[in-house]
Amino acid sequence: MKMIRTRTRTGGPGTRLFFASDIHGSERCFRKWLNAIRHYRVDVLVLGGDITGKAIVPIVGEERAGWSTVFQGQEIWCRDEDEVGKLRQRIRGLGYYDVILSADEKLALDGDPGEQARMFDRVIEETLRRWMAMADERLHELNVECFAMLGNDDFPGLEECIRDARWVCYAEDAVYRLRCGPELVSFGYSTPTPWATPRELPENDIAVRLDTLVSQVSHPTRAIFNVHCPPKHTHLDQAPRLDANFKPVVDAAGAHTTSAGSAAVRAAIERYEPILGLHGHVHESPGVQKLGSSLCINPGSDYTEGVLRGAIVTIGSGGEVRNWQLTLG
Amino acid sequence: MSEANVPHGSLAPQSDTAQPFYTRKATGLTREISLGSNIALNISNMGIAFAALALTTIPFAYPGANFLLSALIATVLSVAPVLLFGLFTAAMPRSGGDYLFVGRTIHPWLGLATNFNITAWYLLVMPFLAFLLPVFGVSTAFATIGAASNSSTLTRWSTTVTEHNWTFGIAVAALVFVTLAASLKLQYTLFIAKIIFAVSVLCVGIAIILLIIHDRTDFKHAVTGYGGNYDQILADAHKGGYHSSGSSFGDTFLSSILIYAALGYGYITAYTAGELRSVKRQALRGKALSLAIAAIPVIILFGLASRTMGRDFLGSATYLSNTGSTDYPFAVPSNFFFYVDMLVHSTVLVAIIGISFAAAILVTMIPTFLVATRDMFAWSFDRMLPTKVSEVNDRTHSPLVANAIILGVGVAYLAFLVWGAATFFEVQATLIFGPLITFIGVAIAAIVLPFTRREFYRDSPINFAIGPVPVISLVGLYALGVFLFVLIAVSKSEVLGVFTHGGVIAIVVISVISVLFYPIAYMVNRARGVDLGLAMKELPPE
Predict the structure, then answer these.
(1) Which of B111-115, B202-206, B501-505 shows the lowest per-residue confidence on average (mean pLDDT)?
(2) Could you read off the pLDDT of B453-487 as tens digits, one per residue?
(3) N or C: which end of chain A has fewer CB within 10 A?
(4) Angle, helix B108-132 to helix B347-381, in steps of 10 degrees
(5) Judging by DSSP bridges, how do beta strands A238-240 and A250-251 pair with one another?
(6) Beta carbons of B21 and A111 less than 8 Å apart
(7) 3-class DSSP assignment, residue B23
(8) Do B541 and A302 touch (CB under 8 A)?
(9) Inter-chain contact B279–A72, Cβ cutoff 8 Å?
(10) How many contacts, defined by CB atoms under 8 Å, are there between A and B?
(11) What is this model's ipTM?
(12) Structure pTM?
């Protein structure tokens, strides 16, 4: 059992936990997640994976000629650095990374997939370190337990950025006991996806790893499972069915869906019956569902709008889930 | 930082042109749905066959209406919801729907009120559609097949099925069928809906072909074959008080609302946007094309019906039928597909038209059912309703409790329609009126979005303006104008009685519950320690 770096404060009769997931590089969502402490008056903060973004928007130009980019289908021109600053803030707010390039650099980068990949590595790490510095700055004077972990879309190795933070715990490192009683079991991998993302595992491996994790828990029925991938065949894992070109399958009858969750996660929840399952991964399927006596929540994700979807859960003094609500912050 | 220093970015397809951005392999990077899928889905939600029903309603309610012009005006009016929902969806692709459009732009209270309002009306639309099945679908099919095959039994049945008990029984069967279809796994529900949709378009296609190959003389003969007299019907109706004046622009303009009621729902792909947004492509092009494609057969149908059947005949026959005149010579109520059937001499073809029209009714009920369920889910997740409502069946993953509620409300309203409603037209008009209240809420939200959610609007892909005025506000104003026009037009009509006793009760009850729903849910949740005020309140990032 690992201790958590926080300042002491009693949880009181009801401890409020705020969970969000899949912010995918949206700086506005990350800032909102940090602000949830004050705004929602919560005691525990959990970020359930898929922290990093999916796309880089190049801003092309130089001081003399001005800068331009195409963002969300719109061509945008900036005349001065002040406007570029505002544009960068907008790009970052909605889950994209920005880089400033000259026209020649842009041309070279377009034809160099290797350099594009290296650029991803660089901007993702820089951004995550900046975010963790921001978290340390905001959290040090507050009295909260704060956890974050990688999801399937985050490159292995980025854990170090979170581990280096003073006031944020890397959730997958251990089973943590919250001050209000329940133990937090965290696991950020998903089942294989059509995109072959960095942290995927077959169902069997997920089952083994979850069993190993739960074996470290003293009372699994009083635990909280912070597991990125939602349980299979629930209302929390309904994703659009895609064709070979990643286009959603839609016909005259409507949009087709498929279960994108994990059977192993479901089996673990049904076997160990934790009080709470916190999930993400499937953005389109926000909801709450009971599996046996376990309350499972996927708040979904609207990071592309800069909106932080989350869940506030109140844990009672007996370690039970007293209440919950979904939020669109 | 990475394992073995292997770079992780895996890239978007390279092209000859400059890339606007670079992507890596990541979950959820779906592309936009294809144009074909976009059009198919939108058109399936429009109910082209229902526009054909207006061919008898319009000349009865608006005797001076010009069919072609009315259809064209309806198409122009239908652009309003397409633009409104298209732009809103580009701004809020994942959220979708009036609930969050209004709730996030103005206030959750108003969002819930508008959403409850339209869901309640959808719950009433379903039994109304089921009610049409025996009255127009089955009855018409029996009458025409009976006449074509000289079967007095079928002809008798055509009257029998319009009796209260039979009407109720057949309509309940339709509601149960739709409930069962919606209770299956979603993929099976969608498969059934797709098959029914394919069948449903046949009646419109066959009608167009028949109206092309037959002229007025053929139709007059056909009417005679069914025991009527074309000219006598006109004379009896005029003698009885029906006045079909010449062409009246006022009637033409007002009548367009009845076609709009069928064409104005072509924005369902608002709920299928991808993560990489492009307002021009995803949100608007597919919906605009869908509207154009759906409007063409409707306009053709109206032109051909006017030529072959005659506007005066359709109005006169409907007048006699609706006023219960003994001069009405046919066994079934006046409706367009009955007159189309008269032109057919094949029992099989008549049966196909009958089945196809029944399919047109059912195919509209299925998505309506699913939307109502989805709304109840959203309320339950937001703690507005008990969580029991959103419980799903383990095997089918369908919300059986929500489905049962919808079926229960549907059967209750059906009983009112069968035994209590004044006339078909009064109910129809109220069902057009009710949902407009929600659409007006969405239009107002569009007007104020750039001002109430400045930062959100600035960062959205719809932040373009004409001069100083944001386009979304202009679209909201246009849509508000259209919705108010339809609202006033349907209210003012003496024939389409929105404010009948039953209509007024429904409007008042639904409006009162809509307004009280949020504060009641707020108080209940506050008592158990949940602050609903936080549900849609934007978190400040700083």
Answers:
(1) B501-505
(2) 888 888 888 888 998 999 999 999 999 999 999 88
(3) N
(4) 160
(5) unpaired
(6) no
(7) strand
(8) no
(9) yes
(10) 272
(11) 0.80
(12) 0.82
